[in-house]
Input
Amino acid sequence: MTATTVPAITTEAEPVRRTARPIPTTRLVTVELRKMFTTRSGFWMLVSVGILTPISAGSLLVFGLDSEVTYQNFVRASGFPMSVILPIIAILAVTSEWSQRGGLTTFTLVPSRGRVIGAKAISTLLVGLGAVALAFAVGALGNVVGSALAGVDTVWDISLFMALQVVLYNLVGVAFGFTLGVVLRNSAAAIVGYFIVSLVLPGILGLLAQVRSWFEDLQPWIDGNYTQVALLEGATNTGREWALLGSTTTIWIVVPLVVGLLSLRRSEVK
Amino acid sequence: MITVESLTRRYAGFTAVDNVSFTAEPGRVTGFLGPNGAGKSTTMRVMVGLTAPTSGSATIDGVRFADLPNPGLEVGVLLDASAQHAGRTGREILTIASDTMGLPRTRVEEMIELVSLTPTEAKRRVRNYSLGMRQRLGIATALLGDPKVLILDEPANGLDPAGIRWMRDLLTGFASQGGTVLLSSHLLHEIEVIADDLVVIGNGKIVASGSKEELLAAAGTLARSTTPRDLAHALEQAGIPSTLAGDGSLRTDADPARVGEVALTAGIALTELRSAEGAGLEDMFLSLTADTQREGVAA
Output
């Protein structure tokens, strides 16, 4: 033993446990996914997607004309309920931290709010993707059964490009719900806001376009519903159409989301 | 150890926490007292990073709470037992917290047992919990990560007498194993029994802090006699100011030995003579925070 090996006696009572490792993002995403569905409201949202999807596809089977028995129609039918419910799931994933005050625990366990919100964003998009996959699967099943029952040829009329647009359609819807949640941070206000923007606003904008001709050219650039429908129909093909989508996405999602995130990171959690 | 240094939090036109500094030492229970709206909860929220300080800092073992890699393993926090998603079951809330910290699920069952929630209760949604059950759940969440520091805001609220006793033993045991406990409460008797150190806050400012013995010693002496007026007179003769309470007891800042001496010299029989500790904390609390009380209690 030489003197040089003697440890310096400047022990500033250095922390007993500095061994704790940072919480990995994958774990946060898993936890946020779980949180979405272990509340009573989340559970019933999930159940309603599970119930309404086959019902919606089945109704096409029962009431649809033979000429309507196509894959496209089945996917659209089975995807309809989730296109309404998914944004609400996204809203609640964010707002429950404030409205139900779960944030008090969440943000003391993970002080970085950016990471929590990021994990929520990833998990809502994953749920969105999962739901669209379900819609395609149920749609395919309906198409096979439907064409067999109607005695017509099974029509697979969805190209990969169109399928991608349908996926994007749902993800944009989820992203919009998420944005509303981040901006308003209140479940009731965000859900009301969601229905106003998706049900009431398109009508007002359409009316405005009819009575004011200068607005007619402007409408597609600011009407999120217009570009959304184009996506659902797989009709977003030209550069102009993608530019329209970019414009409405910037207005309704990107800008409010950035503003909402900035205020969310500074706001007090009570 | 919790260190709060020159902490200030201002809101538009109002200072909730004004240049507050104190420490909560390991191995001790520190009681955090103050009237409603004095700034206790704001201070605690700043400590755990839920509210940003206007200036100053709060650290846990020298590290800002927000910089702890996995805070749940180092600091157990219970700020508001009702701040839970009402639509989740008690067990689910613990499972989520435990998953976030990366603990094994067995820990959840251990905690449910520790806070005496029955398996049936753990399966119920928090919406249907009583305040006491929510407190137990909150304490379970705080203890989940086996932390070395506890920050608890009014944890005894809503607990039944057995629960309060249990909580007291739990916190005393926690501190005796070297843990740091900071707890706020309005239940002065509770604090008096459990706390080693006290920090009293009023209108956002610290009005007193120190060990319980130090602070309560300042509360003086309580004496009773069959002839309280004579005793008061005798004390006055000896140059000791005293106040005569309605119940015939007499309070003074002098220590008990001196009061006994005076009584003996004056030939007055005392029926009670003790350090005014029993009611001391309440009196101390009221007099220290008199300026800040809503009811305007005379100091």
Q: What stands out?
A: Residues 1-16 of chain A have pLDDT under 50 and may be disordered.
